[in-house]
């Protein structure tokens, strides 16, 4: 056994009534939330009608029900009324319309995303084509004003560099553009 281990890890506990009141309240709270989660999972996964009612050690009632406590208890007691069926059908219709609305919104967003991806792909292709050509070969109509100014500055710099090279090799004077 490892001496450095600080805890005993997960171990099975004996099921018996908890004596300490604080521990009892904490355990009730944790177990209650766990039962709510499980009841909600059963409703979501199976579409079951679920009702859960518990009283805390202090006497406070807690409940969970789907579609409603009254509907589930009436089903349990075989006293389904026409009104409960109408309410249930209204909820189901509302839920289905909400699902349909969200599905439509999702599909629209997926379509927009696809369009944006195609635009990005086209822009990348244009950038590759532009990069494949020399920057000086790009049609002027395709350039923005800042790009035109940058191109002008590049041409001026190129001209001055060429003029300096010619001046150095020929030993003569040449004009510079500023």
TrEMBL record:
SUPFAM superfamilies: SRF-like
Chain coiled-coil ranges: 99-130
Domain (MADS-box): residue spans on this chain: 8-68
Places the protein is found: Nucleus
InterPro entries membership: TF_MADSbox, TF_MADSbox_sf
A single Gene Ontology CC term: nucleus
Chief site of localization: nucleus
MF-aspect GO terms: DNA-binding transcription factor activity, RNA polymerase II-specific; protein dimerization activity; RNA polymerase II cis-regulatory region sequence-specific DNA binding
Gene3D superfamilies: Transcription factor, MADS-box (3.40.1810.10)
Keywords from the named record: Coiled coil, DNA-binding, Nucleus, Transcription, Transcription regulation
Pfam families on file: SRF-TF (PF00319)
Name under which the protein is recorded: Agamous-like MADS-box protein AGL62
Record organism: Quillaja saponaria
